[in-house]
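Quick one: structure for this chain?
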Amino acid sequence: MSDALDVVRAFYRAVNRGDASSVAALYDPECIVEHVFTGDEAVRRGRDPVAAGWAEEFATYAGALPGGHRVDVSRIAGIETGWGWVRSEWVAALRHEGETGERYLTGHSHFWIEDGLIVRHRSVGRPVPALEPHAPAAASAREYPSRPVVGVGAVAVTEAGTIVLVKRRHERLAGQWSLPGGMLELGETLEAGAAREMLEETGLVVEVGPVVEVFDRILVDDEGRVRYHFVLVDYLCRPHGGVPTAGSDVDDVVLVDPAAVAGYAVTEKVRAVVARAMTLNRGHTW
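Got it. Here's what it folds into:
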C-alpha cells in the first residue's frame, strides 16, 4: 500500500472498526503523533506508545455514529507543499463507556506518509453541540457541460444478500429503477460521495468497499453536440445503519434479491454491474 491517500483511507477504516492492531500497523516504528487521542494533548513518539494510545482510546470511547462508527471523513486530499503529506477533514461522535450522552467534534488531521507508513500524524478538533447535517454544494451543469461530470454509485449488498434499488423521481429518468448514486461534489472523495448519496437517497449508512466498475456515458443531441458526458464510479457497499427511506430525489427504495433485478426493468448496464458486484462481494471481507 504505497499510495499516501490509500494509507489514510485504510487508517480510518480500521479506526471505525475499533481495530487497534490494524491501526498501529499503519504507523512507522519511529512515528510522532500529536493531539490525536481524546482529551490527550501529549506528543507520543514510536509505534508502541501510539498503539497503547489507540488501545486505551478504543477501550474508553465507543463510536456514536450509525453502526458504531467513530469518524465520518468528508475529504482526504494531498497537500501541495510536499509529497507524502495528506489532509483529512472529518466529524466524530464518541460515547464514553462510563458516561451518558455523546461528544461531538469536527476537525482535520495531517499525515506524513513514507513507504506506506504514517511518520507524522497531527489532529486539530473542536467540540460542537451536535453534528450539523451535510449541506450539498451547488451542482455543476450536467446538461451540455464544458467537461465530463463525475458521478458515484453504490451496489449496496445487505448481510441477507439483497441489494438496494431506487425509483427515480426527476427527469431524465423519472419512474425508472436504478442503483443509488449521484454527482460528486467539489473537494469530496469518491468514497465520501458514494456514502453521502446512499444516505441522501435511501436513508442508509454504508461502509464503502472496493470499486466495482468505472465507465462513461456520452449522449449527443440531433446536432451532434454532447448533451451529457458522465464518468461513473460504482462501489460495492455494505449498509450498517439507518432505515430504508426514500429521499428527495427518489420515489421509492426497495431491497431486492439480485436474481430478481431484471424484473425492475433496469438497464442492461445495471444488471452487469450488479452481477460483477455480487462476484466481488463473495470474496470481500467486511
